[in-house]
Structures are given as C-alpha cells and as structure tokens.
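Suppose you are handed only two things: the residues of a chain and a line of SMILES describing nicotinamide-adenine-dinucleotide. What would the bound structure be? This form records exactly that question and the answer produced for it, so the two can be stored side by side and reused later without any lookup.

QUESTION INPUTS
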Amino acid sequence: MTKELGVGIIGCGNISTTYFSLAPLFKGLKVLACADINSQAAKQRADEYGVTAQTIEELLANDEIDVVVNLTIPDAHYPVSKAALEAGKHVYSEKPLVLSLEQGEELRRIAKEKGLAVGCAPDTFLGGAHQLARKFVDDGGIGRITSGACYVMGPGMEMWHPNPDFFFLPGGGPILDMGPYYLANLINLIGPVKRVGAMTSMASETRTITSQPRNGEIIPVKTPTTIQALLEFVSGATVTLTASWDVWSHRHANMELYGTDGSLYVPDPNFFGGVVEASGRDKDIKPLEAWDHPFGKINQESPNGSRANYRTAGLADMAMALIEGRDARCSLDRTLHGVDIMTSILKSGAENRFVDLTTTCTQPAALGIEEAQALLK
Ligand SMILES: NC(=O)c1ccc[n+]([C@@H]2O[C@H](COP(=O)([O-])OP(=O)(O)OC[C@H]3O[C@@H](n4cnc5c(N)ncnc54)[C@H](O)[C@@H]3O)[C@@H](O)[C@H]2O)c1
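ANSWER OUTPUT
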C-alpha cells in the first residue's frame, strides 16, 4: 500500500470546493481528478484546483485513483458509490450515505466481496469541540448519560436554495438532511441506538419558493417536515431528537445530554468548533476549559463569522486507516447505523409504532490532540 491514496471526486457542485481546498491540509490524500454529469462543472473545478477533468467512466477506469469521493446529490449517492465499488475503488461519500438500508446493505456486500472500504461524512464530530465533549464524557464528567434532547429546527430551504424541490421529496426532509450530524455525534458520545419511536407531520402540502430565480413558484411537499423522535440507546440512555423545517424561531439548544452527575451542552454538530459547557450536581453551568485541538482552530472567515472547518478530516482518517490497517472513524458500519436510525424514525412516524433497529455499530475511537495532529501534514 502506498503512503498516499489517489483521490477522484465525483460531483463538482457547492460542497466540492471545500473538499478541494481542505484536502491538501491532510496526509494520505492526493486529489488527482474530478468528474460530474455536467462536464462544465468538472472542468471548472479542474481548472480552479489544478486536477484533471474526466468523464465518470474515465475516472472509474483511472488506475491512479484509489478512492472515489462521492459529492453528488443524495439521490445519486447509491448508484455512484456502487459503480465506484464495482470499479474496484474505495468510496467516501457525502451524507446521507444512501436513502435506504437496503441500498446500504448492498454497498456493504459489494465492499466486503471486493475487500474495499466505504466511509461517509459527516466528520464534524471529529472537531475540537465535539472531541472535547467526548473526552469529558469518557472521563466521567457527567457520570453515566441517561437522557438528552436535540433540536435542529428552522423555516426551510426554499428561501435560499435556488432549486429546493428535492428537500421536500422522499429522500429529503430535515431528518435525512440534518439528522446525520446529530446522529454521528450521538454515536460518538453515547454509542449505538436500539430502537426508535416518532411522530411526523408536515405543516403544509406545498411550499412557495422565495429564492431566485424561481421566486413565487409553488412546489409539492411529499415527505414529513416535522419529526419528533425518541431514541433508546443500547446503553439505556433515551434522547429526544426534533428536526423541523416548520419553525420560524425557537430557544432550544442544539444538543443537551443529561448524566447521573451533571449536564453537558454540546455546540452545533454541523460545525467543528464551538463552546462546550457543562454543570455538575451544583447546577453551575460553565464552559469547559478550551483545549488546543487542531480541528478546533479557526481557519475560515465566512459571512456568518469566523469558524473552524476541517471537512475532509473523515476522508483523511479513512485514508490513514487504510494505510495503517486500522478502523476508520467515519466507517460504513457507523454511517449505515445512522441511515437505519433515520429511516426507522420515518417508518415509525408512518406506521405509528416503535421500530427496533436491525444494525448496530461500535463507538468510534476518540480523536485526541495527538491523533488529530497525526492526520495533518
Ligand atoms: N452544500 C453544502 O454546504 C453541503 C454541506 C454538507 C454536505 N453536503 C452534501 O453534499 C452533497 C452535495 O451537495 P452540494 O450542495 O454540493 O450539491 P450541488 O447540487 O451543488 O452539487 C452536486 C453536483 O453533483 C452532480 N451530480 C448529480 N448527479 C450526479 C451523478 N449521477 N453523477 C455525477 N455527478 C452528479 C451535479 O451535476 C452537481 O454538480 C449532498 O449530499 C449534500 O447533502 C452539502
């Protein structure tokens, strides 16, 4: 095995710039080529980042490519990842890995048969803030986690996304879109889930686009836009997860976990950084002492403020895991368990019953300061 994996990116849209620009920070990765069904999009990224634009077929036949990074839209994740595995490439996908457990099991079968790895975002749980929370939990900071509450709520996507249709169709919705961040973080902090129950609804059967260029156009809603879920973990902890695009404002925190000896306040799981707070039995809520974690350092300015962004850390960890022969943190088992949780939540809402999960996974290894530093060049 070489000490660096050749990377080919399929899907050259919005998020691809993050991968192209952040991959050079990490060991084990060399982005060589890109492809897209829209050849212009591939050519644009190739010119911007000095890689080769290829057709999808050329990229899959390229002997220098070891890993295909699938940054296509959710509906294309399964066929693109399947084609990459069949071409003998490892796969790392943007979330959600697939839209059904059956698709994920098929990827697992092909990967196993061919001795290939599959990994998937989100990797934000590898961020400095979330790993600080993990260390605090592992060190017994709040005792045994017994319960918690998570909220990811907003008014929707039709006011900013130019083509928001897919968000409101089966395979979209707030749980499949935003749920992966919360579930990856909960698996990181608590471990696997045993069963789920949910009530699901939609505030409206249509939405009116207010973004340009389709301002005023009415689009159908065919998937729940409010999901109130209850998760029972193998550990015995029970956590509520509310995901909605029917809420204009609220005052709930992203993630609060309650333990036998205190409470933990985890910042937004969609980002790498943020302030982690906790209280003991004295109920005095204070920020945890910040630590010098490489993936908590601010490295980007955005219109919403400065932030730590190390997306591709999960891909780099998978590459190093392949090189070193160890378990990857953003592994197929963990991400497929996340898909099982999300699709079971929707099933529970549709069928009005609790749903036992058929998959499980282990907690990923913690990523402390030294382990994170070892992923960087
Ligand atoms: N945009 C973000 O900020 C963001 C953040 C985190 C995760 N993601 C995830 O990343 C993925 C991509 O999101 P995006 O915002 O970049 O979308 P996008 O629509 O901007 O880009 C997707 C690209 O994939 C291409 N594509 C679609 N189907 C294809 C196929 N079958 N084969 C090859 N190319 C195909 C499209 O032509 C397009 O260029 C999604 O799964 C999304 O959930 C996006």
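WHAT STANDS OUT: The two ends are 19 Å apart (CA to CA). The pocket of nicotinamide-adenine-dinucleotide is lined by residues 10-16, 36-38, 41, 56, 71-74, 76, 80, 94-95 (CB under 6 Å).
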